[in-house]
Write a structure and sequence with these properties.
TIM Barrel, 299 residues, 13 helices, 8-stranded parallel β-sheet, 12% strand, alpha/beta
Length: 299
């Protein structure tokens, strides 16, 4: 059984060189900074980590680098989803071999499962490759295009022996709350919409996986501390601050997070095509918006 995952788990970046080739050298420094920022775990090769844009060998290398750098201090979850279930099984077995604490997967998204039963069948096929390792479903319908609720999936996937829960990246708080209540102690449900963290706390969330925790974790730590202290006004203020930051991301494009990391914490290279990373005047405009928010003073 997977120990309780609580606090802020970072959906990690996969660093690249200027030409787009993988660059593992920043990962140890990145991990140390994130641990210093209070990050309680890592979710590797997911959407933020551009797993779908990397080769299988590159995904193995990134997973190895994060597991090695974390050195058992916090849990590492490796996202192994692939349109080829055979490749997903290979990635899952590799994650276990290198010491990952859990594996997670999106289903195939080109030839999508046509029913809930087919979806669970796909997940079961990947999970069976690592029967003694906790398996988490990555519920992100905006990208997978699958219509099934998190609750329906949680109910149906309970028959998979090592099914451990859901990374829930969807804004439907009623469905999320129902998943929390059904999951109980056996199945964990980790919330994946950073801009709704406070609302998720209100319905019972305790564990969160997100991309912006790489960038401005201190404001979220303050939010959690205010909530735990019963200071709802303070928690709302921090949530509003984080939301203002998150609103910059679509304004400056899908590759803005790596550009923000370069401006605040160090260069991790560009995003993989087709995602553009702001450069030149576009990066200057992004830097001006960050300065206007006072983001550098948040840490």
């Amino acid at each position: 059984m997977l120990p309780p995952l609580e606090g802020l788990l970072a959906a990690t970046f996969s660093p690249c060189k200027a030409d787009g080739a993988l660059d593992l050298t920043p990962i140890p420094t990145l991990v140390e900074r994130l641990l210093g920022d209070g990050i309680t775990g890592f979710y590797v090769c997911g959407s933020t980590g551009e797993g779908a844009s990397m080769t299988v060998d590159e995904r193995r290398q990134v997973a190895e680098a994060y597991v090695r750098a974390a050195a058992g201090r916090v849990p590492v979850i490796v996202q192994v989803g692939h349109d080829s279930l055979a490749q997903a099984r290979q990635l899952a077995r590799h994650a276990v071999e290198i010491g990952a604490d859990a594996v997670s997967a999106v289903p195939p998204v080109y030839f999508k499962p046509s029913s809930l039963a087919e979806l669970v069948g796909c997940l079961a096929e990947v999970a069976r490759a690592v029967p003694d390792t906790p398996f988490l479903y990555y519920h992100i319908p905006a990208l997978t295009g699958l219509p099934h609720s998190g609750l329906a999936l949680l109910e149906a996937a309970a028959r998979v022996p090592n099914f451990a829960g859901i990374k829930y990246t969807d804004p439907l708080l009623d469905d999320f709350q129902a998943c929390l209540e059904l999951g109980g102690e056996r199945h964990q449900v980790l919330f994946g919409r950073d801009e709704m963290l406070l609302a998720a706390l209100a319905v019972g969330a305790r564990g969160f996986i997100g991309s912006t925790y790489n960038l401005v974790a201190p404001v979220y730590r303050e939010l959690l501390a205010a909530w735990d202290a019963g200071d709802l006004v303070g928690a709302r203020a921090r949530m509003s601050r984080a939301q203002a930051f998150i609103r910059l991301l679509p304004k400056h494009g899908r590759g803005s997070q790596k550009a923000i990391h370069a401006l605040l914490h160090g260069d991790l290279g560009p995003s993989r095509a087709p995602i553009d990373t702001p450069t030149g005047a576009a990066r200057e405009a992004l830097a001006a918006d960050l300065e206007a928010l006072g983001v550098r003073q948040w840490s």
